[in-house]
Hints:
Layout: E1 4-11, E2 17-23, E3 26-31, E4 34-36, H1 42-53, E5 63-67, H2 73-81, E6 88-92, H3 96-105, E7 117-120, H4 125-129, E8 135-141, E9 147-148, E10 151-152, H5 157-166, E11 167-176, H6 184-190, E12 194-201, E13 211-218
Parallel strand pairs: 5-6, 5-8, 6-7, 8-11
Antiparallel strand pairs: 1-2, 2-3, 3-4, 9-10, 11-13, 12-13
Helix pairs in contact: 1-2
Amino acid sequence: MKPRIILAHTTLPDGSNLELHEHDGRHYLHSHGQQWAGSSTRIAEEELAKLGTHPFRPARQPKMLILGLGLGTLVRAVGGAIPQKKAEFTVYEPQRELAQWQKKFFPEENCFQDSRVRVSHELTPSSLARENGSLHAILVQADACPLENGKILLDDRRWLGAMRDALQSGGVLGITAARIIPGMFSRLRRAGFDVVEHFVESNPAAKKPRRYPIWLARKPAGNIEK
């Protein structure tokens, strides 16, 4: 049996460890006793990128925000789905080490090789809201979503309201996760979005394939805060 190797580690704001693991050529992040942001979530992240960016492929300068870097899978998938050279992809990732790990451990897949990608280490609900309808899409792999006061941003009404305000009319907040998040559908509806829920299978050929949820929350025209 091939060993599991801890390539790097850092400390999260709550004091817990975040580790980058490698096992048999596969990489993943490990924290709070759980594995996430690895090969097991790749299909869901790639599907989210396709669905979340599809309405904006005709746009001349699509502007996207990705909340959380993870291992860069979602960022690379968004870049592959949007060919426009003037597109802008901003990644909000307060944990600076994750960007460093991209360059050190994934030189061939480093998502920052795409000149359209930039990383921001600081973001607040008020600064996000000041985007004021300029964003086409905000995409999130919930397990990699940054935390505030120990909770992911999707759990906070202030952040959901800011995401809604930052999107243009018809803009999409797209979310996937390693498991169903109870109440996510209704939470997005209460925040003023039109919501649909999809599921993608991790391995359709498996006898019992794992199903990952995808929520697509669209900002309607004439949105009023609820």
